[in-house]
Specification:
There is one protein chain. By secondary structure, this protein is α/β, with parallel strands linked by helices. It is built from twelve helices and ten strands. It has two domains: about 5-110 and about 290-305, Nucleotidyltransferase, domain 5 (2-Layer Sandwich); about 115-285, ATPase, nucleotide binding domain (Nucleotidyltransferase, domain 5, 2-Layer Sandwich). It has helices spanning about 40-60, 85-90, 105-110, 145, 155-170, 175-185, 190-195, 205-210, 210-220, 225-245, 265-275, 290-305, and strands spanning about 5-10, 15-20, 25-30, 70-75, 100, 115-120, 125-130, 135-140, 255-260, 280-285. The strands form two sheets. It has a five-stranded mixed sheet. Strands 8-7-6-9-10 form a five-stranded mixed sheet, sandwiched between helices. β6 (about 115-120) and β7 form a beta hairpin.
Length: about 300
Amino acid sequence: MKLFLGVDGGQSGTTAVIGDETGRILGTGEAGPCNHAAAAEGRARFESAIRGSVGEACRQAGLDLSAIEFEAACFGLSGGPEHREEVLAGILRCRRPFLLTTDAAVALAGATPEGRGIIVIAGTGSISMGRNAEGRTARAGGWGYIFGDEGGAFDIARQALRAALRMEEGWGPPTRLREILIDATGSQSANDMLHRFYTPDWPRSRVATLAPLVDSAAAAGDAVAAQIIHNAAQELALLVASIRGQLWAPADPVFVAHIGGVFQSPMLMERFRSLVELDDVTRCGEPLHGPAVGALREACRFAAL
């Protein structure tokens, strides 16, 4: 039996899927995030995420990771493929070279039957990618939490903290976000909360978990929180507009799939959908499969070349 491996590794977590030559999924495993592997700490996290996710998928499939050789393996990784191959070679055996690509590419591969259209990922960070019928691709966003990731959960939490600080200092409008975030973090003040966020106890993945509190405040009628959610939806819709304009004519029909925890917000989802579907030929919907299955499909495609 030929075995194939697909891995989706992002800022929020890592998912591995093992399948056979018929497309049947044999096992799935999950582990922590794996976004960068250049420094020693990032390399250790990456190795732990791969061993954990692939190891769990092997256990579900009744396989021994140390004894199997994959026919092909595809890895869709946040932060790009740099510095990863050496680590993977120390963990896995594969008949073909590892196929290393981005998390957006495997998400798109799983989103539609042909892997065409646009995918928008909004988890801890954000990125969008498209592929048209001619096979041309384009991406937008995904430049990290310092210079990009607009509309992602970390960015939403960051904007909420900024609003709380401005209220506390008297140069921003009143908002319940100050009280909500102070309570959620066990802080004494917005200033105290900010200093906590600069410590190792609050990595950006943990800061991102505060985003649902912003959504709840918006749903309860907080105008500042609602504006943050609406702005996030607009940023994500702008990613779509950029890719659509690069790859399709205005009259061409395009399917836009969305994935990630940010889209669990009804307010954000409604705003995002209304902006994306302003014309009559762009349709927004759920992806056909998740990114890890998209990576598995890419591994099978790679083996067939």
